[in-house]
Amino acid sequence: MTACAPHAPTVGGWNSLDAFDNKQQLDGLEATARDGGGEAAKGKPGFSGPYHHPAAGWGAAMSVGRILLRERTLLDGPRAIFRMNHEGKGFDCPGCAWPDDTKGLHLDICENGIKHVTWEMTHKRVGREFFAEHSVEELSGWSEFELENKGRLTEPMAYDAATDHYVPITWDDAFELIGRSLRELDDPNQASFYTSGRLGNEATFLYQLLARELGTNNLPDCSNMCHEASGRALKAALGTGKGTVDLADWEATDALFIMGVNAASNAPRMLTALAEAHRRGAQIVHINPLVEAAASRTIVPHDVLDMAVFRSTKTSTLNLQPRIGGDMALMRGMAKAILEMSATDAKALDKEFIERHTAGFEEYRAVCEATPWDDIERQSGLSRADVLKAARVYRNADRSIISWCLGITQHEHGVDTIREIVNVLLLRGNLGREGAGPSPVRGHSNVQGNRTCGIDHRPAEQFLARLDEVCGIESPRGHGLDTVRTIEAMHRGDVKVFVGMGGNFALAAPDTPYTQAGLRNCELTVHVSTKLNRSHLVHGRQALILPCLGRTEKDQQAKGLQSTSVEDSMSMVHLSVGMKRPASPQLRSEPAIIAGIAKAALPGSKTPWDWYVGDYDRIRDTMSKVLDGFEDFNRRVRLPLGFRLKQPARELVFGTPSGKAGFSAAPLPDVIPASGTIALGTMRSHDQWNTTIYSDNDRYRGIKNLRTLVFMNAQDMADRGIKELDPVDIVSTAKDGSVRSLEGYLAVPYDIPRSCAAGYMPEMNVLCAIGDYSTQSDQPIMKHLKVTITRSA
What we know:
Residues about 1-40 have low confidence and may be disordered. The chain is α/β, with parallel strands linked by helices. β5 (about 155-160) and β6 form a beta hairpin. It is built from 32 helices and 33 strands. It is globular and about 75 Å long.
């Protein structure tokens, strides 16, 4: 987005630029509230232009008020606000994985977290009467908003092919159907067990135990589609698949580089860290093809004084807009600049750190020297002057953090780009000390914990050996199927039973028609969910919907109220305890559902499934014997703020073959689109969370009542004879030459580099062919699709 144009110094009694903007914002938001801004699209689609107001602030506060009113949670909502993400008070936000405030000074919440929680706490219900009234064929024509907005699922349901309706089924009969289907498979690898990040650590551990006792490592998860590149790159470079920094490092660093992250929507609590960093004088560089709302300024809603006087805080000192896929070239340019500075600046490089703790430096230096500046400019889409600005910020900072999200990972060369980020950090010894290091931003609560606790289709032998010894099973050793290969296997008929633990697989996965055809080819699909979604309507020949407790709800088991643990984006593990009566007495917890499936599928199992479910402390005791870093789990997780898992690389202990941090000398990829072609990236709107659509509005991008759109560079539009809100056709060409298309999308002019465009997932997932995945990470390349865009006939 472009910078806000100056206004008159005094307007209507408001005496500052920020105040003027926010007074206008309030007036506009009041109108939005009257229009039903939190409802499904109504009225004429519109684009009001770039968003010039501070992120969060009164816009977020009024949005929250509308949400509480719409979902009729005026009592439970405020209770949840004061218990979410607070030590000893309640539950962990089921939204993003940003760490909880360590000082206990803030209302550690955000607009999107409250949306997520109130969406779960709604008073609306979907029971047998609803399914009796609506066939699957009818529901298939509903929008995503309409499906989820009907409310919480209340009892197990089974698909009846004769009537095309879901009908009630008892829990025992549902478990027997799943168990029988799994027992009758010719090979346990004909089943696949998917999970999203909503699953707590205890359920995660039981889920992978079920799969491995059954005899398969088919454990695809949402990491296969988001941060697989981060894990593989960091593992190769540092010997650990996670970032090394924590929130205290963010509070101490001199420079933050934020790459490929739309923080205002995807990790809004980061705004607090950015505002605090700016106040103490840290440099903040945002690197993204789109200048998002978080890359300008904010008013943090729990800063009461700032809210009262409409005073905003800057959240950036420099914004750079590389072309889609140009981030690696930018990092290479920064490294080249630092190396050139070192010829006359003895402190530009940390030579002692490089010599003692790294391998491959001379080869990397040679690659940097051999990379012409012309190539760096062309591939990054940035001028040499802009690259040098970032390099000077990096050189002048004693301690730097580089943080990134899906704008970096969902590319063909995502692993090489993250290796290049690590290269830049190693040059100045920004590892193993306070305020410095790599910091991937995980997008979904506990997605990192899922992987830590065993959801991995390529498990390490050390983990399997310990699991077998402690749990008395014999785990399979071969690699299992990830998300893409599970979909392909469903198509071939090689996967016959699909179990989805949370999420909305039918929409979240790439190549939507292909994915949905694969699901329909299964003998049985099982989805454990809180609300109705598309995956329930795209089902196998037999299908079950199993309703589970939400994170906000009390989990009562034989030994009383239970807690579950989650791991945040920075490796902190802490407890979460629900506060609300369950939406239905028929809801079961995820550990209880997993145990029910396991007992039915493995009648001879010696695993004490019911004993585990009766008291989750027992699960944690077993986990402490299996998982590195979880020793004395039950005591440590009850400490204030929980505990942080060990990060050996933070202590400069590297589990790499050389025993040192490794430089990577990968060549720069060619990311420049062919003539007439545009690089397109998919993303969320502000008013959605993954595949959950709260409304068809996107406040931070000036969009109202519209999701079927494409953001384009204004000159690219002019070259194609396209005007604002003209209908266009978008055609993608896959690696295998096949094409996919979307028709009648509306073009929106936006501040984005030439030959680049962006639009919303999951609608645009159809453009990502099943074969368009990275050869480095196996992730679908949803942020770098090759498309043509033409005005509709």
